[in-house]
Amino acid sequence: MVKFFVRPRFVLSFLLALVVGCSPAPNIASSVPNNPAQNNSGPVEPASPALETTASNWATKKPKLDGIVSPSEWNDANRIPLTMGMYNIAGENPASHPFTLYLKNDQTHLYIAGKLEKEELDGSMGLTIESLLMDTFIILFDNNNDGIVQPGEDKKSLYIINGEPYVKDQRQLSPAEQAKGVEEDAESQNIRGNITHSSSAGGTYNFEVAIPLASGDKYDVQTRPGGKIRWNLIYFDKFNIKMQGMEIGGISGVEAENALDWGTLQLATKGSKPKTAATPKAATAPVVMAGKPLPPNNKKGDIRILAQIMNESEITDASLKFVASHSDFILVAFPMKEVVDKLRKENPKATILLFNNPYFAFGDKFWSAASQAEVNQLSQVYALRTDNNEIISYGGPIYEGMEVEQRLPMMDITNPAWQDYFTSQSRKHVDLGGFDGIFIDTLTEDIPPFALGTGGKFPRGYTAEKWKAGNYQFLRKMKQAFKGSKGKIFFNGVTRPPGASGPQPNMGMLNIADGSAIEAFSIYKSMDSSSATKKWYFEKTILQDLQQASANGKSVVMEVYGNNDDDQIRLYALCSFLMVQNDRTYFYFTRKDQAGALHWRPEWGVTLGKAKGTYQKTAQGVYVRDFAKARVLVNPTSTAMTVTVPAGYKNLHDQPVTQVGLPPYSGAILTLN
Question: Which of 44, 248, 468, 495 is most buried, most CB within 10 Å of its CB?
Answer without folding.
Answer: 248
